[in-house]
Amino acid sequence: MDLQHFPIREKEVRAYRVDGKTILFRYLDRYQTNEVGGFIVARCDARHTVDDIVLSLMERYEIDRERALGAVTGFLRDMRAKGFLRLTDKNEA
């Protein structure tokens, strides 16, 4: 995964915060994240690169780069496979 790409939610995806969790909806599909997933989703706005999100996660949760990188790239891969997110090579904000 290119760390300079910008993650963005697909246009039809809606995200809601409920009781500290983020729930993503896409048509009839639904996915509930944990706190870290919600933190990542909040930054999938086509203004933050994958690397920006990794750095933010490191700072917020006081974890090392390897762990943050694994969490972010794993989450983004999973969300892309489910059709909730995509990556773009340009800032679309």
Strand-and-helix sequence, N→C? EEEEHHHE
Looking at the overall shape, the CATH architecture is Alpha-Beta Complex
Q: Uncertain segments of ≥5 residues (pLDDT<50)?
A: none
Count of individual domains: 1
Overall pLDDT score: 94
Helix content: 25-40%
CATH topology: Outer Surface Protein A, domain 3
What does it look like?
The protein has 93 residues and is of the alpha+beta class. It has a single domain, classed as Outer Surface Protein A, domain 3. It has helices at 35-42, 50-61, 65-81, and strands at residues 6-9, 13-18, 21-26, 29-32, 85-88. The strands form 2 sheets. Strands 2-3-4 form a 3-stranded antiparallel sheet, covered by helices on one side. A hairpin with a 2-residue loop joins strand 2 and strand 3. The chain is globular, with a radius of gyration of 12 Å.
Layout: helices, strands, pairs:
Layout: E1 6-9, E2 13-18, E3 21-26, E4 29-32, H1 35-42, H2 50-61, H3 65-81, E5 85-88
Antiparallel strand pairs: 1-5, 2-3, 3-4
Which labels suit this protein?
93 residues, two-stranded antiparallel sheet, alpha+beta, Outer Surface Protein A, domain 3, 40% helix
How do you describe this structure in short?
The chain is of the alpha+beta class.
